[in-house]
Design a protein that fits this description.
This protein is mostly helical. The protein has 1 helix and no strands.
Length: 59
């Protein structure tokens, strides 16, 4: 093996690993987006409830 030469199989393995990493990142991004979409309004409601309770001196 000379300098800067790579076998085709090694190159294909590298491409395969990069594609798998890309797919995993896409799936993780979708899961995080789903949790953000579901919990975002809930967090807003909790903040409003805490502020209302603060104004009514229940906290």
């Amino acid at each position: 093996m000379t300098r800067a030469s790579i076998d085709v199989e090694d190159l294909l393995k590298l491409v395969l690993v990069l594609v798998v990493v890309w797919l995993v990142l896409e799936i993780v991004g979708e899961v995080v987006g789903l949790f953000t979409a579901l919990l975002g309004p809930l967090v807003g409601v909790v903040i409003v409830v805490v502020i209302v309770l603060w104004f009514l001196d229940y906290l």
